[in-house]
Design brief:
- The complex is a heterodimer.
- By secondary structure, chain A is of the alpha+beta class.
- Chain A is built from 7 helices and 5 strands.
- Chain A has a 5-stranded antiparallel beta sheet, sandwiched between helices.
- By secondary structure, chain B is mainly α.
- The termini of chain B are far apart.
- The relative contact order of chain B is 0.11.
- Classes of the chains: A alpha+beta, B mainly alpha.
- Chains A and B meet through helix 1, helix 3 and helix 4 of A and helix 2, helix 3, helix 4, helix 5 and helix 6 of B.
């Protein structure tokens, strides 16, 4: 057999994946061919070195974040089951679906205010909010709820949500209005990970929003698009939308106000 | 408890703790898979989260015909592939993948230097080659398991491994000969098949 043919078999030979006949052929050749024997050694050496590489490990903090995110999603799934039963008008908002819908509205930044039970949070000043009605996405739809790839959306295209209740969607202007009403900064404020929280405004709300946006962006450079306070899973949260500077990707997240934990992030 | 038993407890009894246990059991391997595919810790962390959150809905689809780990890693590989396809192609500095970042190759000590070169050489391989080397030589999967995880033919696994290992050997040899790794590493092409 030619050296070229033998060399093609060496890798499988190392792994004992050759037939008995092939093994005999290879070994017979190796016995007399220094070149191929050297090639075998090269391959084995490369494998040994690669095998010695440390496995990349999650930091403890990352593992904790994973556990928190999973638990939040598990709980949200259970909550949405309960809401289905009560046929609440806002049932689609309970759980991860609302932020997935937020992600589905792509270029139109969406911050959806969520509340549980009957009365909205008095801090939200929802009385001043414009009437909520379904607004067709005017830009590119990032993905529908089943995670299909990005596609260009035409005006009037549905969110792909097969729920029967029309999902309330906020336009950019409505979000800015809401944000201002709740004391949150409007978009255009660029922050890098290093300055998040450091040049926060003196008031508590500003610092909290910084922390929320930073947590949502996981310390990657991002611009804060919108921030609205609301309730999610019974906790007071900031619902923030940030746009990552390195990838332009938009992330919507519900971040707990008191400890800055990311409770839910866009999928 | 086996994976199957944990999944059963979650699906039938709604035991969220069982699901959490499943996550803990497999998070390291899923994370390292993501890291090897995308090359960055932050991205790998995000992807790991996404994969396990999706698993909450998808775990009911596992029928037990393949090992749970094989099925899970296939899910993870596909998720990472989709992510990479959507990401804008970029030229990434090989330094990002060095295990210990520090002074350039000229100034580094022998042992650490060698590991850095190997890491960089591995991460510089095209994705399809990198995957088979990682799955076989680092994680020790069989050819059959690799074929199932990557959803390719057995013959494809064989030929990819052969080429990948040869490329790796060349990269490592070249790196040693010239005393540095940067010359050997081209732009990292995550889009290339």
């Amino acid at each position: 057999m030619q050296c070229e043919d033998i060399k093609d078999l060496l890798s499988a030979y190392i792994d004992n994946e050759l037939s008995k006949d092939e093994v005999r052929l290879v070994e017979a050749h190796l016995f007399t061919c220094a070149g191929c024997a050297a090639e075998l050694d090269r391959l084995r050496a490369a494998i040994t070195r690669v095998a010695g590489l440390a496995r990349p490990e999650m930091s403890e903090a990352a593992a904790a974040r994973l556990a928190a995110a999973v638990n939040a999603s598990l709980a949200a799934g259970q909550v949405s089951h309960r809401r289905e039963e009560t046929k609440s008008r806002w049932r689609w908002l309970a759980g991860p679906a609302f932020l997935s819908a937020a992600a589905a509205v792509g270029a139109v930044a969406v911050a959806v205010v969520v509340w549980q039970g009957a009365a909205p949070n008095a801090d939200l000043r929802m009385e001043r909010a414009p009437t909520m009605q379904a607004v067709p996405p005017s830009g590119v739809v990032e993905k529908n709820l089943s995670g299909a790839p990005r596609h260009g959306g035409a005006p009037g295209e549905s969110l792909g949500n097969n729920k029967s209740v029309a999902a309330p969607v906020f336009t950019r202007e409505q979000i800015d209005e809401l944000a201002q009403a709740s004391g949150a900064p409007s978009d255009g404020r660029e922050k890098t990970a290093g300055t998040f929280g450091k040049d926060a405004t003196a008031d508590k709300a500003g610092a909290q929003i910084d922390a929320a946006a930073s947590a949502a962006a996981s310390n990657r450079p991002a611009a804060l698009i919108s921030a609205v306070q609301g309730r999610f899973q019974g906790r007071l949260v900031w619902v923030v939308v940030v746009e990552l500077s390195d990838g332009g990707q938009r992330i919507a997240a519900a971040v707990a106000v008191d400890d800055g934990r990311v409770l839910y992030r866009t999928r | 408890m086996t994976d199957g038993e944990l999944i059963d407890r979650y699906l039938r009894a709604g035991d969220g703790g069982a699901f959490g246990e499943l996550v803990k059991r497999h998070q390291d391997l899923v994370y390292s898979l993501c890291y090897r595919m995308v090359g960055g810790a932050d991205e790998a962390e995000d992807l790991t989260q996404e994969i396990f959150i999706r698993l909450i809905d998808k775990v009911g689809l596992w029928r037990g015909e393949a090992k749970f780990t094989t099925w899970l890693y296939r899910l993870a590989v596909n998720h990472c592939r989709d992510h990479l396809r959507r990401r804008r192609p970029e030229v990434v500095d090989a330094d990002e993948f060095l295990v210990d970042s520090g002074p350039g190759p000229e100034g580094q000590a022998e042992a650490g230097d060698l590991r850095n070169r190997v890491e960089a050489a591995l991460m510089a391989l095209p994705l399809d080659w990198r995957s088979v080397v990682w799955l076989r030589d680092i994680e020790g999967f069989s050819y059959q398991e690799i074929a199932e995880i990557l959803e390719v033919e057995l013959g494809t696994v064989k030929s990819r491994l052969a080429r990948a290992r040869a490329a790796l050997a060349s990269a490592l040899e070249g790196a040693e000969a010239e005393g540095g790794v940067r010359e050997q590493i081209g732009p990292l092409d995550h889009q290339r098949g």
